[in-house]
Design goal:
- The protein is mostly helical and 491 residues long.
- It has 2 domains: 3-114, no CATH class; 135-398 and 410-480, no CATH class.
- The chain has 15 helices and 5 strands.
- Helix 13 runs antiparallel to helix 14.
- The radius of gyration is 29 Å and the shape is flat.
- The model is unreliable at 1-22, 24-97, 108-115 and 365-369 (pLDDT under 50).
- Belongs to the TDE1 family.
- It comes from Triticum turgidum subsp. durum (Durum wheat).
- The chain crosses the membrane at residues 125-142, 170-189, 210-228, 234-254, 274-298, 304-324, 331-350, 370-393, 414-437, 463-479.
């Protein structure tokens, strides 16, 4: 993208903004303000007497390059006052609305200039759509593809067994999706710059990649059953890796949001919002726990559900106690959000119990109501796709190096290799959801992630999420104390 083209586009867009108001800043630090009729105005209005006049940038509507204007002081060698883009007539900074408008303008101009080339930001949505279509295809094969699957020579060993045909169909489609994203992972890993040819491969060549996806989806249906069963065993570990990456990403986002709101810059401005969100999350967590006791532990015979819910309540209290400790001082926002998250995981774990269980009455009612069951299934599929997408673009969640490097203009916006790796693990994850983490059980129609194996996986994920959060807020203190101890010993 040529700087001149971007500048001209930005100034043309600026003409739609009000003529008055604070100036803008172009690359290089030169501020510019344009009038309503396109007449250039002073970048910074001088003080009294006109002794000093700040440099001015004259920009024509269709100009390719912005050039500094001659000084209008009238004297040779007159000083030039330094300018800051944030200043206006009476001093002070831009208001929030002006900043938002200018940022939208810059992004719009950049998008207009980059749209002729590879667009990795738009490509990620296409990959998410491919992943969604694959999920729907796996569900269709599981619930409605038994007659077609029974005719395949490779699946005749199932002898028409419904659970066998459904599970093998899901695993074969999952294997095809895994192969597609794993090929994309191998071909885009370690991509750093936008001018790399692999950026074009990641963001373009859609007819070729669609054909590749269709071919890799069909190939597993010609594979022997022992190979598919082996993939099903490996998929347990891949799905587990996906859950670990996902919970690290969620925990990292919550701690980042908490640190951002508690920073000196935002502490006073966001104090009321943080307080309201903290109260809402705590009330929501307690309310969710009470409802789970009422719905899923109606009698003392439901000992396992009582154990799950009680442990969740204890984890919420422990996270809160550790966060507000005088040595940690993490506040109430992060444990409140984590409390909502682990309560949701506990609820989903109990919901994953077989619907024949007497303590899972709400799930049985949902099964009898077709529309509610279908809605729950659709929401679950969308959540799987959204979780995979949001985790895939967070390539920093598993970085172990704390060194921060400044990003350059030609850096890629997110890690392509990590993005495809997460989708490959997500392919294994949705396979486990559709077969209930057990290839030898029959799944009901319009159900997802049901079975005792699913329940224990969710419970383990919940406990691991709480432990991960506690470690993330305690680890800096532990490492700092250890470093201080080492320094004292050396001295």
């Amino acid at each position: 993208m040529k700087p001149g083209t971007a500048t001209a586009a930005l100034v043309r867009w600026r003409s739609f903004l009000p003529s008055s108001g604070p100036p803008m800043t172009l690359d290089g630090g030169l501020p510019v303000t344009t009038g309503g009729a396109g007449v250039p105005m002073a970048a910074e209005r001088g003080g009294g007497g006109g002794a000093r006049v700040a440099p001015e940038v004259v920009v024509e509507r269709d100009a390719a390059v912005a050039t500094p204007a001659m000084e209008r002081d009238g004297g040779v060698g007159a000083g030039v006052a330094p300018t800051e883009a944030a200043e206006s007539d009476g001093g002070g900074g831009r208001n929030c609305g002006e900043q938002c408008v200018i940022r939208v303008a810059e992004e719009w101009c950049c998008a207009r200039c980059v749209c002729v080339g590879p667009n990795p930001m738009m490509a990620r949505y296409v990959y998410a759509l491919i992943f969604l279509v694959t999920n729907l295809l796996a569900w269709t094969v599981r619930d409605y593809g038994h007659s077609a699957l029974g005719e395949l020579r490779r699946l005749r060993g199932c002898q028409g067994a419904r659970y066998c045909l459904g599970a093998e169909g899901v695993l074969r489609i999952s294997l095809g999706c895994f192969l597609f994203f794993f090929v994309m992972f191998l071909s885009t890993m370690k991509t750093r710059k936008v001018h790399d040819c692999r950026n074009s491969w990641h963001s373009e060549w859609w007819p070729v990649k669609i054909a590749l996806w269709m071919a890799l989806t069909a190939v597993p249906f010609f594979a022997p059953s022992p190979l598919i069963q082996l993939y099903g065993k490996v998929a347990h570990f891949g799905a587990g890796a996906f859950l670990v990456i996902q919970l690290i990403s969620v925990t990292r986002f919550i701690t980042w949001l908490n640190d951002c709101c508690r920073s000196e810059l935002n502490l006073k401005r966001c104090h009321m919002q943080v307080l309201v969100v903290s109260i809402v999350t705590y009330v929501g967590s307690i309310l969710g726990i009470v409802l789970m006791y009422v719905w899923y532990a109606p009698t003392s015979a439901c000992k396992l559900n009582i154990l799950f819910i009680t442990v969740t309540l204890a984890l919420v209290q422990i996270m809160t106690f550790v966060s507000v400790n005088s040595k940690v001082k993490a506040g109430y926002l992060a444990p409140g959000l984590m409390g909502i998250y682990i309560v949701f995981l506990c609820w989903s774990a109990i919901r994953s119990e077989p619907h024949t269980e007497m303590c899972n009455r709400k799930a049985a009612v949902a099964t009898s109501a077709d529309w509610l069951n279908i809605a729950s299934f659709v929401i679950a599929v969308i959540v799987v796709v959204a979780a995979t997408f949001s985790t895939g673009i967070d390539s920093k969640c598993i970085q172990f190096k704390s060194a921060e490097t400044e990003s350059e203009d030609d850096d890629i916006p997110y890690g392509f290799g990590f993005f495809h790796f997460v989708f490959a693990m997500g392919a294994m994850y949705f396979a486990m959801l559709f077969i209930g983490w057990n290839a030898h059980q029959e799944m009901e129609k319009w159900t997802i992630d049901v079975g005792w194996a699913s329940t224990w996986v969710r419970v383990g994920n919940e406990w691991l999420a709480a432990i991960t959060y506690i470690w993330m807020i305690v680890a800096p203190i532990v490492w700092k104390r250890r470093q201080v101890g080492s320094s004292s010993a050396c001295a």
